[in-house]
Amino acid sequence: MILKGKAWKFGDDISTDHIAPGRYFHLRSNLPELAKHVLEDADAEFAGKVQKGDFVVGGNNFGLGSSREHAPTIIKVAGVSAVMAKSFARIFFRNSINVGLPALICDTDQIDPADELEVDLTGGKIQNKTKGTVIEFTPLPIVMVEILQDGGLAEHVRKHGDLDLSCDLPEE
Amino acid sequence: MGKTIAEKILGEHAGCEVRPGQIHIVTVDVALVQDGTGPLAVRQLQSLGLEKAAHPERTVLFLDHAAPSPRKELSNDHVTLRKFAAKTGAVLSEVGDGVCHQVINESYVNPGDVLIGADSHTCTGGALCAFSTGMGSTDVAIGIALGKTWMLIPPTIRVEVTGDLTPGVYSKDIILHLIGTIGADGATYKALEFGGPTVDGMEQSERFTLSNMAVEAGAKTGLIASDDVTREYLDSRGRAANFREIGPDPDAEYERVVDIDASTLAPTVSFPHTVDNTRTIDEAKGVKIDQVVIGTCTNGRLHDLMVAASILRGKHRHPGTRLIVIPASREVYLEAIRAGYIETFVEAGGLIVNPGCGPCVGVHEGVLADGEKCLSTQNRNFHGRMGNPKGEIYLGSPATAAATAIKGELADPREFLS
Ligand code: SF4
Question: Which listed residue, of A21, A35, A83, A164, carries a Cα 20 to 30 Å from A74's Cα?
Fold first, then answer.
């Protein structure tokens, strides 16, 4: 699957409080409203300007903090097609895949704000169209690929009626 | 080959030998959601036609983050959880019962359990030697309904603590020091295992503080071997029969061992806006503080309130500094009343907030004004955490918090030890 869009660049340590601030706690059961505030405390203009298909590009430890699944969910609801970072906090990483938002670990230093990117999800490559470079990303564990391919964890369970995952595989 | 605590517990729940890096389906003993994450979990199960709990008596729904509700939207979310409890037989922890990680450990978690919770500080249960970890709403929803989840078996980092803590220094200072040393991502996807003579000698409350903050180093859980201290705690909670002794094998394989000499530590404070931005109190002293918060799942237990009350007794908060105290649970609240701590706080000019999360996550009960600075005993100080991105949050122990409330600026609790 090929994804195309523009990069929105963020720094290191973007927390779930930046992405889905606690002061909007009351909007958690109203995701389209909550999505209007997505990443507000990191870039106040992001929510108003992001286009369908764009990418959120972070640095180290993206998504640290709370377990709120609303964080990757509203990034997806805002139209973002994938998140990239040098590293992710584990709950955010797991949640992203569960909600069907690809989370790609790669060298994001090679991406600048507004770069046009093309992501080949199955091929493991990101083309930076603006710079004419290619960035490889770390393959996801097989379990996560299966969940992502089913469209997220809930869809996986809907389809299989159970957790039906290829387990007991040593890590790559 | 020897096993770490994580490998032992997860192996039991996978039904086979496990090694770090493998992925297994494991059974789930205890599950929790709270009012910020639970409604989404319930909606997922409703949409899947799976509105059930595999173990209703050990599935607990907490009304603690926005409790009592400050807004109608949140009141409606509370109703969603009450209805789910009524329908499935899951346990409801009502407004005022306390913060999830305190109550779950007081009443539900036993050594050797796997606990999953839709709250990142679920790792607190590691202090009772349960493999306890935070996940998102959908993961926990599926865990509740099916009684199982998938886990990547984590490598373990052993934190070996030796040496006696000096007066005025607490387990909060150990964990802040550790995170300042290894960084906010120093243990990402790993299990932390706290041990050594200092941890062996700690009472249960201080152990909870260590495990609670494991996630602030990125860890999946923060385990402590179960021993006589654990046994006594369970006994005092009427669960002596659930005690099991679990510890690492002597030849367990660790990814790395971090040594800490507790006798060299000083009161430690995290500066805005990351937990690993730590300084010792000598380098921190003098920052003017507008609000002090004592409580939360990190430091709202009886022992914490005792430490703070012993410093505040007969003294008064600085006129420019507000003092908010939140007992972590109804039970802690009652004991603190009986012990006279609550009276001490009120006489010292403090304000007591009902058991729950209080202002920790910025919903209510102490939102900061623009430019205000707060010292809290909570576990994280991210930008905007307490409801205002223009506020600043500092983290410290209950003793540091009490000293700071008196002086109106970041202060060394050792000045107040008698
Ligand atoms: S007290 Fe704070 S950290 Fe603990 S569960 Fe509540 S909001 Fe989370």
Answer: A164
All CATH 3.30.499.10 domain ranges in chain B, comma separated: 5-261, 270-416
Atom in ligand 1 nearest the alpha carbon of residue B360: 2
Residue with the nearest Cα to atom 6 of ligand 1? B357
> What number does CATH give the domain B270-416?
3.30.499.10
Model confidence, pTM = 0.96
* CATH superfamily for domain B5-261: Aconitase, domain 3 (3.30.499.10)
User: From the CA of B344, how far away is ligand 1's center (Å)?
Assistant: 25
Q: How far is A18 from chain B (nearest CA, A)?
A: 7
Of B152, B215, B385, the CB nearest to A22: B385
ipTM, interface predicted TM-score of the complex: 0.94
Count of domains in chain A?
A: 1
Burial B282-298 (b: 16+ CB within 10 A, else e): eebbebebbbbbbbbbb
pLDDT digits (tens, 9 = 90+) for B210-261: 999 999 999 999 999 999 999 999 999 999 999 999 999 999 999 999 999 9
Q: How much helix, strand and coil, in percent to the nearest 5, is found in chain A?
A: 30, 20, 50
pLDDT digits (tens, 9 = 90+) for B55-74: 999 999 999 999 999 999 99
CA dihedral of residues B118, B120, B126, B130 (deg, nearest 10): 20
